[in-house]
Amino acid sequence: MAKAYILISSMWILAIQFLIMVYKSDAKVPAIIVFGDSTVDAGNNNQIPTIARSNFVPYGRDFTGGRPTGRFSNGRIPTDFISEAFGLKSTIPAYLDPAYKISDFASGVTFASAGTGYDNATSSVLDVIPLWKELEYYKEYQKKLKTYLGEQQAKERISEALHMMSLGTNDFLENYYTMPGRSSRYNVEQYQDFLVGIAKNFVKELYNLGARKVSLGGLPPMGCLPLERTTNIFGRNDCVERYNVVALQFNGKLEKLTASLNQELSGVKVVFSNPYDPLLNIVRQPSSFGFEVASVACCATGMFEMGYACNRNNMFTCTDANKYVFWDSFHPTEKTSHIISEYLVKHALAVFL
Is 25 a known active-site residue? Predict the structure, then answer.
């Protein structure tokens, strides 16, 4: 009886291993290529003259080796988890990081820059890499990839790679609602349309360069970011509803854009990856996800905390980031990023698996 049990168990193990092998062989995404802002910047800003950096402790304290990498998190960021979910490496390196070369970038790379947006004027606020420059880096990357893999294999790699875009929050919070230029020229709906037009042209540029799999990222409930809640004194430090309404409106426009691009561009598959609902659910019911604090950040003073207010000597930094939804006033903790990434893989990106 024991021998039979062992035999059956062995057969089950072999069957599972076979299914895993089949699943891996059917995986059609050999690389993840990322464009965007601080939510997906893995250290590009470390290499440019800007204050929008996170290359100091306590950033990265829960990352492998406990070191700051330039990720705006205590650990990994969403695209790292998405890469891992696709059976690729567990972290996606920054293109400008001199520690990596084309052999590292061949299966995943991020051109993202913290503080940037669709709008060139947004990147000027903190002197970071504009989206058009991220595209130029991508063209440079393609040339290196052709040298490394050969022209035909590089072309196939690009067409099968998942191209991810995650930006837009800075366009509103760091530009439109903060600087006078755009708000004096556009009302908020006109500005949304202006940004959607840029997003459309960008996806078309990627398409013309060979991309066929694209994830267009939506906005989070940006009125629920700790900085916005801290400044919402008359609203009892609750989420700033008007910012959330803008995010919902903009996401609706991006979703429509996704549908139109799929009709317009032959052979392309564009999906809309929307973090709004999962993050809002976490913020509204933190205990359901194992969190204790959602209104303030782990590394928090209630001041502008994209950089220097989060440092080694900050007495307000929490001891356990897993209890907090947000790491600093703009960015989620590693745990939150993991939960949202799993949601996006299941509800949007699964079509590429």
Answer: no
